[in-house]
Structures are given as C-alpha cells and as structure tokens.
Amino acid sequence: MMISTALKSAVLTRKCSELAPSLVRLLHATRPLAIKEGDSLPNAELVEGGPDGKVKVGDLFGKKRGVLLGVPGAFTPGCSQKHLPTYVKQYDQLKKKGVEVIACVSVNDPFVMSAWAKDQKTEGKVHMLADPQGNFIKALKMDKDLSAVLGNVRSKRFSMLLEDGKVKKLYVEPDGTGVSCTVADTILEELGKK
C-alpha cells in the first residue's frame, strides 16, 4: 500500500515537472506586459484627418521630444472637459520646455477624431490620431474593455513623454479612465525637473 502511494506521488511529481515549462510559457503568453519607460514606440500606422491621412507613429515622433496621450473616447466628458484641453491650453508652455510634437490617440474612426479636433480647437497644436481597430493601443497593452459603456475595447487614459522615439516617462490613470496624473501639468512638472 505504501509503495503504491509513493509510486503514485513520484509519477505525479514527474508529470508536474514535465508540465511546468509549458505552464510557464502559457502564463507568459497570456500576460503580456504593457509598454514601459525606456521602451520604443511601435511604428504603427494611425490615421489623421480622414481615411487617406496615414501617419506612422515613428515618423511623427522620430528623434524629437514629444507627448502622446491616449484617451478612452472622443467627445466623452473626461476627455473633452479635463484631459485634452490641458494640452491645448498649455501648448505654449510645453513648446517652451522643448516639446516638438503633441499627439492624442483614441480608438475611434478618423471622421470622429477630425470633428473632435475642430470642437477642441487642436489645429496646429495637437495631432488627433485615430486608431480605428485599436491595433496601436493593443500593441502598447493600453487597451481596456469599455464595451458596456463605449461599445468596444478602448484605450486606457495615459500620457507619455517621449525622447528620441522612446518612452521617458509614462503616466497611466489608476482606473484607466479617471483624470488626475495624465494632464499637461504632470508633463510640465517632469520637464521642470531638468
């Protein structure tokens, strides 16, 4: 009886140890990490202005100092009243601190982003980039399922300070949608540390 139990235990231990590498690979494959400070931005193609306005993220930011903000949706209250307006209002201060490019990305179509740009008076200040299928946002691992409210997967609310195409500082709202640490003041404060 004892031999049988010991034998069963040995067989089970061996099977578990054989499965362990597969299990580790599976866990790593299903838990991808979000973009982090020091990472390069993926050179994804987004859309600005209309369906023909293809923009490569790498070309837009290149070797410049820039700010990229991600929002859950155009015309939503937090995005339209609290988040994006801080970058429009503080555009001149950001430029004085050496920011060359400011862009806002959302999982929306280019027509909605274009209308929102007019509403928010971003022309000449903030590039309004559409990510219609959310491919760029998913590549950053900044996607959030907001289908119950906005109908599909959207972007978490974030802002990042970029230097030479790499993330220097990354700010993500703790709940993914609120507005506190992702406003222009946070970026200006970081730039003031130099």
UniProtKB/TrEMBL annotation:
Its EC number is 1.11.1.24. Coiled coil: none annotated. Keywords: Antioxidant, Oxidoreductase, Peroxidase, Redox-active center. CDD domains: PRX5_like. It holds the Pfam family Redoxin. GO terms for cellular component: mitochondrion; peroxisome. It catalyses: a hydroperoxide + [thioredoxin]-dithiol = an alcohol + [thioredoxin]-disulfide + H2O. It comes from the Eukaryota. The active site is at residue 79. It is an enzyme of class 1 (oxidoreductase). The keyword Oxidoreductase applies. Residues 35-194 form the Thioredoxin domain. One of its GO terms (biological process) is cellular response to oxidative stress. PROSITE patterns: THIOREDOXIN_2. One of its GO terms (molecular function) is thioredoxin peroxidase activity. Belongs to the peroxiredoxin family. Prx5 subfamily. Thiol-specific peroxidase that catalyzes the reduction of hydrogen peroxide and organic hydroperoxides to water and alcohols, respectively. Plays a role in cell protection against oxidative stress by detoxifying peroxides and as sensor of hydrogen peroxide-mediated signaling events. This is Peroxiredoxin-5.
